[in-house]
UniProtKB/TrEMBL annotation:
Protein name, UniProt field: Bacterial SCP orthologue domain-containing protein
The organism of origin for this protein: Bifidobacterium aerophilum
InterPro entries, per the entry: SCP_3 (IPR041629)
Classification lineage: Bacteria, Bacillati, Actinomycetota, Actinomycetes, Bifidobacteriales
Residue ranges of domain Bacterial SCP orthologue in the record: 59-152
Length: 152
């Protein structure tokens, strides 16, 4: 089953754009942004702030943004080998590799993320290692790192 319906693609693009815009407004200034002030941000505070980005948007926008970005990930790296789950709004199988066990339909590699974590990664607000070190990513299997595919 598709993660997003064809007739919802435009809604998904719009939701993703709205989410990114709202999230970037919460994102702290980068070093280049503060260079003019001859001041550098505290790297740990900046990372903590980025990890907390969570825009106040209606649930339907979150749902469509998640579905649309999962669709984009699936297009970028098709295959049956890794299942990426962003509950409660979607899951896709990506990357080549062993397919699901015919008895339980779960591939050998599974990655689970909350919607805020997934969208921060997809937008490039945070990096895979940052989110993983913060304990925000649950991954089982050998292919448990999507950093080469992100941001979208």
């Amino acid at each position: 089953m598709a993660v997003i319906r064809e007739q919802d693609m435009e809604k998904g693009r719009l939701a993703w754009s709205q989410w990114r815009k709202a999230a970037l407004e919460q994102t702290p200034a980068t070093t280049s942004d503060v260079a003019a002030d001859n001041a550098a941000p505290d790297a740990r505070t900046t990372a903590t702030t980025r990890l907390a980005v969570n825009p106040e948007l209606p649930r339907p926008i979150w749902a469509m943004a998640v579905r649309y970005t999962l669709f984009m990930l699936e297009r970028r790296a098709p295959g049956p080998g890794v299942e990426v789950r962003v509950a409660p709004w979607g899951a896709v199988k990506i990357l080549d590799g062993p397919a699901s066990d015919p008895h339980n339909l779960t591939p050998p590699d599974v990655i689970e993320l909350d919607p805020d974590v997934w969208l921060r990664l997809a937008a490039g607000i945070t990096a895979w290692d940052e989110e993983r070190e913060a304990g925000h990513i649950t991954a089982v299997g050998e292919r448990d790192d999507l950093s080469d595919l992100l941001p979208l």
